[in-house]
């Protein structure tokens, strides 16, 4: 590979995901959390399988063989169908990133070599400065979002208060009216705006405002790192409002702050003083930690499903109950080598030919850190993972097996509980109550 090509590649590596997405014509994505935008993949379609995260400088697509990446070149390869394991495909992806043709391989003069090396040094310096600036900005943004999430949860009302009536009624509807233990970490907001998109002036737009249930995400030390919001409409299906942007339905649950690596404590957890040693205040600055003696953990994606299982087994005194927030946080990333072809779902490739949809497989990605997926308290030696039966079965099945493989150790037994196909455990409780 020529020296000119080396500089060409170095320049492409310095381009951020945000810059590349704009240059590559990525459009139609909607904001969804901290620095993240979600929508249809420009290559393989869908409705929400594709996302970019400008804070993490990452992209993801459930239809991609590799799942996603953390540089602009891999994004261009996915969108352009370039085989980057080969020289030509890799350079073609770089060309898409830069919007320039690949340089020819003509021998360079001594003067051209010196000029190229100077440009290369400048590109590397600019790239390093940009990366440091982005890292600093991302850290500051994350800290602000975490502070907002802690403040939102800390300012909310406990369920026993008058403001918690709507949340208590919501839980009764979703869980068949069964009795619940005290839930000090689930709280209520009387009129929470639902922000979606911007107006022509670039200001955020609230398309709905209404009561919401708010729950904290806590990190492995018990500090509140984010919050989970569920909007409520008792007259709607599943007691959640029907929100749309155009013809497309919107999720009625959102998250603020950080989620990955954290969990939502439900039952079997207690307040503890902050690690700084300041006095316990009973507010959002306190840690939330597992109660001693509870060596079993029941955890699912959602709050309602985990509570439903707790109701069914009588909220055992040896058990912690928690939610992960979503399947990605529960399962963690997959090893790209284990991805497989879906047996029935297809997508068009870059030439319009239908091919089997790629599904993230059951093997965890090697070398994961604590921020890649939910962490289990050290005291837990038995774990029950709660699956959803109303999600796509092959992707969900692979994800649950991946979670089991990730969390199982020589000293910890892990099992998976599956509801009937097409239902979740909360649905089963509701049906049983209606039939009684």
In short:
The protein is α+β, with helices and mostly antiparallel strands. Helix content is 31%, strand content 27%. Residues 279-285 have low confidence and may be disordered.
Largest sheet features: 5 strands, antiparallel
- pLDDT < 50 runs, ≥5 residues: 279-285
The overall pLDDT, averaged over residues, is 84
The percentage of residues in β strands lies in 25-35%
- So what's the overall shape? globular
What's the arrangement of strands in the largest beta sheet?
A: 1-2-3-4-5
Category from helices, strands and their pairing = alpha+beta
What is the percent of helical residues?
25-40%
How many discrete structural domains? Answer: 2
* Helical run tally: 10
What separation lies between the terminal Cα atoms?
A: 74 Å
* Strand segment tally: 21
Radius of gyration: 24 Å
């Amino acid at each position: 590979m020529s020296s000119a090509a080396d500089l060409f590649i170095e320049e492409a590596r310095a381009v951020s995901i945000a810059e590349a997405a704009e240059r590559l014509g990525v459009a139609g994505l909607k904001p969804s959390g901290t620095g993240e935008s979600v929508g249809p993949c420009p290559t393989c379609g869908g409705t929400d399988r594709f996302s970019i995260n400008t804070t993490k400088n990452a992209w993801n697509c459930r239809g991609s063989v590799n799942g996603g990446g953390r540089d602009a070149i891999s994004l261009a390869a996915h969108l352009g169908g370039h085989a980057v394991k080969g020289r030509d495909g890799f350079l073609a992806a770089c060309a898409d990133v830069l919007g320039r043709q690949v340089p020819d391989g003509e021998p360079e003069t001594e003067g051209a070599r010196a000029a190229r090396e100077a440009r290369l040094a400048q590109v590397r310096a600019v790239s390093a400065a940009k990366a440091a600036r982005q890292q600093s900005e991302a850290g500051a943004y994350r800290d602000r979002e975490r502070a907002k999430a802690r403040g939102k949860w800390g300012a909310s009302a406990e369920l026993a208060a008058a403001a918690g009536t709507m949340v208590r009624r919501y839980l009764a509807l979703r869980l068949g009216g069964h009795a619940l233990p005290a839930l000090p970490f689930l709280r209520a907001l009387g009129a929470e705006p639902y922000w979606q998109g911007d107006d022509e002036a670039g200001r955020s737009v609230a398309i709905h405002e209404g009561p919401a249930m708010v729950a904290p995400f806590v990190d492995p030390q018990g500090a509140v790192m984010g919050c989970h919001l569920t909007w409520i409409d008792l007259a709607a299906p599943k007691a959640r409002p029907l929100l749309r942007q155009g013809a497309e339905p919107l999720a009625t649950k959102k998250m603020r702050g950080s989620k990955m690596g954290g969990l939502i404590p439900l039952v079997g957890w207690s307040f503890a003083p902050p690690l700084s040693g300041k006095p316990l205040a009973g507010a959002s600055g306190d840690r939330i930690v597992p109660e001693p003696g509870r060596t079993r953990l029941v955890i699912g994606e959602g709050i309602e499903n985990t509570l439903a299982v707790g109701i069914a087994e009588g909220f055992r005194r040896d058990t912690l109950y928690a939610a992960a927030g979503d399947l990605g946080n529960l399962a963690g990333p997959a090893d790209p080598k284990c991805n497989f072809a879906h047996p029935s779902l297809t997508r068009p490739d870059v030439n319009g030919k239908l091919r089997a949809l790629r599904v993230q497989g059951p093997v965890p990605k090697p070398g994961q850190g604590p921020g890649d997926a939910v962490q289990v308290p050290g005291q837990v030696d038995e774990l029950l993972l709660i699956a959803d039966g109303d999600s796509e079965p092959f992707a969900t099945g692979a994800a649950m097996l991946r979670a089991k493989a990730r969390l199982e150790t020589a000293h910890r037994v892990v099992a998976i509980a599956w509801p009937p196909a097409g239902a979740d455990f909360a649905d089963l409780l509701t049906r049983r109550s209606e039939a009684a």
